[in-house]
Design a protein that fits this description.
- This protein is an alpha+beta fold.
- The protein has 2 domains: about 5-150, no CATH class; about 175-350, Histidine kinase-like ATPase, C-terminal domain (Heat Shock Protein 90, 2-Layer Sandwich).
- The chain is built from 10 helices and 7 strands.
- A 5-stranded mixed beta sheet has the order 2-4-5-7-6, covered by helices on one side.
- Helix 5 (about 125-175) packs antiparallel against helix 10 (about 315-330).
């Protein structure tokens, strides 16, 4: 929520400062004053308007700092000290400008300048500081509420996105063509190797179980995801046989790291569907993980070229991008590039 760019905020802030200054300053003097003349009343009204207007102008100094350098969702003690420093600086500027400014209506209505001593002027500092503290409290409250609402919206988006990820995965795993090929191949395999057929059924069931049970969480260990990938590869090899060569190069330090569920599986599925299946001789899919500079790198490379199929919307890849953005903001990265005769998908996830 950027208030500096909102004309509605400018209008409401201006009206608020003027009314607040009149309420706190002008009405107070009129209420407790005795024998208030029209001239004096006009002066204190002008005084309230000028104080409010000056407060309105200088409030943008604080607001600029808050919106530019103060992250309401991730601030430190240093940020608080800086904010206090900006408020103090604004108060100094406010009081340097205030008294010469108030001399204008003083000369107009009473033909004399302000006769307050330095001590009297300094005694007004807490009074005017209260204006800014009330305003700052309102601004930070608005931003905090907006931050909480943003978290809630992002959480809802993430939950919806995870459901989309599950549905997209199921499209590649449970659609009639996939199920028909897998079960038909297993049936044929039973006549040749019952034990292998039984293992294939186990892999198929584990693949389906994983897809159905992992949509309700935001992260799982890389080790669990790799188990799912192995099951998926075993099932896929029933159809592709020797045409599918799968290789892994896993950094041992990455095994226990948390990742969004099914992102590797989607990359593997995409590599097989849009890469290996289009090649008569098949090809290789290689999964690599690496930890470097507090970043987890996940790379899936497959033989082939990037193809833009007319009947494909590439929902899986878009799903990965959206989930990474929601979970890690701009700290995560997803790229898909063609390098030589390979298509390389890379995910970078921050650790800690």
């Amino acid at each position: 929520m950027k208030l500096l760019g909102s004309y509605k905020y400018w209008i409401l802030n201006f009206i608020g400062w003027i009314l607040f200054a009149l309420l706190m300053l002008t009405i107070d003097k009129i209420t407790y004053g005795r024998n208030v003349s029209n001239v004096y009343m006009n002066y204190v009204i002008a005084e309230g308007v000028l104080c409010g207007f000056l407060g309105f102008i200088l409030s943008f100094v604080i607001l600029f700092f808050v919106e530019k350098y103060f992250d309401i969702g991730n601030y430190s003690k240093t940020d608080i000290y800086k904010l206090v420093g900006v408020v103090i600086l604004t108060q100094i500027i406010y009081h340097i400008l205030l008294w010469p400014l108030l001399n204008v209506p003083m000369n107009y209505y009473f033909q004399r300048s302000n006769s307050l001593t330095l001590i009297q002027k300094l005694s007004n500092v807490p009074h005017f500081l209260a204006y800014y503290l009330v305003w700052l409290f309102v601004i930070l409250t608005l931003k905090f509420v907006h931050h909480i609402n943003t978290i809630k919206v992002n959480q809802l988006k993430l939950e919806a996105n995870l459901k989309d990820a599950q549905l997209n995965t199921l499209k590649g795993q449970i659609n009639p063509h996939f199920m028909f090929n897998s079960l038909n191949n297993i049936r044929g395999l039973m006549l040749e190797d019952v034990n292998k057929a039984r293992n294939m059924l186990t892999s198929l069931s584990e693949t389906l179980r994983y897809s159905l049970t992992k949509n309700g969480i935001n992260s799982i260990s890389l080790e669990d995801e790799l188990e799912m990938v192995e099951n998926y590869i075993e099932v896929s090899k029933i159809q592709f046989e020797d045409r599918l060569d799968f290789e892994t190069q896993i950094d041992e330090k990455s095994i226990d790291k948390q990742i969004p569920p099914m992102i590797i599986q989607i990359l593997i599925e995409n590599a097989i569907k849009h890469g290996i299946s289009t090649l008569k001789r098949g090809g290789k899919v290689k999964l690599t993980t690496l930890i470097e500079a507090d970043q987890l790198y996940i790379e899936v490379a497959n033989t082939g070229h990037i193809r833009h199929a007319e009947n494909s919307t590439y929902l899986g890849l878009e799903n990965i991008k959206q989930r990474l953005k929601l979970l890690y903001g701009t700290n995560a990265l997803f790229t898909l590039n063609e390098i030589g005769d390979k298509v390389v998908a890379t995910i970078k996830i921050p650790l800690g």
